[in-house]
Specification:
Blueprint lengths: L1 H58 L1 H10 L15 H5 L2 H12 L2
């Protein structure tokens, strides 16, 4: 009977040691995953900032104008420019949309 208690105690201590070791391994693995994800977040943020700057440059007025000229676009003649009274058309936006759609050939 005493030998059985001793065996159970040894098994309990060994089980406790294995459980502690397993938890330590799991915590270490999770720590590595967290660090990897944090690095991925930093890389994505850096990439996002780079792409935002690139987009800002491409959408800048001077850049758009340069690309338009490279594509053969020219400034319109002053007589070809039609300005709309925004105050008058604000309440009549449906008519303006219809006019724009008909001008586009839709």
């Amino acid at each position: 009977m005493g030998n059985n208690k001793f065996t159970m105690a040894v098994i309990a201590v060994i089980s406790f040691i294995f459980i502690c070791a397993w938890q330590n391994i799991q915590a270490t693995q999770l720590g590595y995953k967290i660090e990897k994800l944090n690095q991925e977040i930093k890389d994505l943020e850096t990439s996002n900032k780079y792409m935002q700057k690139e987009l800002d440059i491409k959408l800048a007025q001077s850049s758009l104008e340069k690309r338009a000229m490279e594509m053969g676009m020219i400034y319109p003649e002053p007589s070809a420019v039609i300005t709309l009274d925004t105050a008058a058309s604000a309440g009549n936006s449906g008519a303006v949309k219809n006019w724009v759609a008909s001008a586009d050939g839709k």
